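[Discussion] Sanity-checking designs against the backbone

I'm trying to build intuition for which residues belong where. Below is a structure token string of 113 positions. I'd appreciate it if someone posts a full sequence so I can compare it with mine line by line.
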């Protein structure tokens, strides 16, 4: 993991813990997910700790998507189980090139605890 990826991840943990929200990208009922660069046949849902960082990604094929707030309690109560069951990993604070770390959602829960 590069230093910038580690810094983005740590900032994600700090800001989500402090603000109790994270941001995904949504268009209607559809959320942005990407193919994993680490695992075959695996998807990653990128999430950001600020609305502005999420909004930066709303270009090109995601131009119609909008940042959507996910509260930390909602994430822990609803999203974690669904993502874990579906085998979807999570990508906290990916950069503008959609590059960053990919975590099992349970790893993120432990880090946020």
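Best answer:
Here's mine. Compare freely.
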């Amino acid at each position: 993991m590069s230093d910038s990826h580690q810094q983005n991840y740590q900032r994600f943990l700090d800001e989500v813990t402090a603000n109790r929200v994270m941001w995904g990208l949504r268009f209607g009922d559809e959320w942005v997910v990407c193919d994993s660069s680490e695992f075959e046949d695996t998807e990653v849902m990128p999430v950001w700790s600020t609305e502005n960082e999420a909004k930066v990604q709303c270009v090109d094929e995601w131009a119609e998507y909008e940042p959507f707030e996910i509260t930390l309690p909602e994430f822990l109560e609803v999203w974690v189980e669904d993502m874990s069951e579906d085998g979807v990993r999570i990508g906290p604070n990916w950069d503008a090139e959609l590059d960053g770390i990919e975590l099992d959602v349970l790893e993120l829960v432990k880090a946020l605890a």
